[in-house]
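thought: fold this chain, then report.
action: predict
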Amino acid sequence: AKLALTTAMAALLAALVASGAAIAAPDPLSSGSVVLQLRSSGGLKLKPATLSLPITTGDLDPTTGAGTVETRGALRAKRGKRKAKVKITSLTLGASGGAGRINAKIGKRKVNGFGRLSGGTVTRDGWGAKVDGVTARLGSKGAKALRKVFAPRSGAKASAAAGRIKAGKPLGTVSVSGVPKTVELLPGGTLVFDAD
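observation:
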């Protein structure tokens, strides 16, 4: 009887693991939000301190946190007397804290990879998921785009100051909460448990 019970419990655990693996998949999102806790550093001032953006479309894996979300909203970057409006267009999150990126638009210029994303933890949030504690840093394309805005065509001092805006500068932290359009439970097998 003990052997039968042990075998049945092992089968139950295997079935649960297999079921979880089958269900894990990106969920198309109906809504949600992206919250950026912005950090000013090295003479680059970012406002507002907390920026909340609505998710307009996208998908998010509730198990690994991987996905891409499109959003709308903007932050303001300032260095000295010069300012730039940075519109956040989308974010791509890597699986299990892997590499991701922030895409943006400065003026009419699209800047894919404006920021780099890494880290974070994934938790269930109702039927959806929440990714917290993602670190955001300025990407090389973002740094280049900001230097063009902050450095006038003439003026050695201003150009030198803008030159100090380099990739890797901290932008802050990001959290993403997604609400799925539908929740799909994939069909699985049948398990009969007999404790006798």
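thought: worth noting. The longest strand covers residues 27-38.
final: tokens above.
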